[in-house]
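Appendix B. Chain record.
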Amino acid sequence: EKFAYTSALISTGKSFRQKYGIFKAKIKFSPSAVSQAFWMVSDSVTPHINIAGFEKGKLFADLFWSGGTAGSMMKSSSKTGGSKYSSGYFIFSLEWAPGKLIWKINDKVFKVQTQGVPEEEMYISFSANLKEGASDAGLPSSMEVDWVRVYKLAEEK
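Structure tokens predicted for this chain:
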């Protein structure tokens, strides 16, 4: 059958949103044709933060925001070879403060961004989906999330 697969999405859009803080999840990605991601978004398309994504053997972290002329979309992206990220669990985190985003993998800094930093509450999502033209290689597939933790920033004194 041509469409014998499904995609999956878990979102806190209707139950939890937060502006600033630390957002962490312990995840095991699966090496397959499935695009898997731990991400955050507000009520519109931008801003959009990929805390950790895994696709075609690459691990990526992205920020998309509106800017420039006529509401164009801006993007900052970092990628690394990712086969090791499908061999076990890793802790992916985003530290979000006014004017600064820091992505970490097992508490080691992977990416820092100071431009386009969101200033509105966002919600958390986990997703796994097949891209158009994907093969059966590596199917069935899974993205295992062991835990999720969110912390607020300490109040300034």
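Further analysis of this model is presented in Appendix C.
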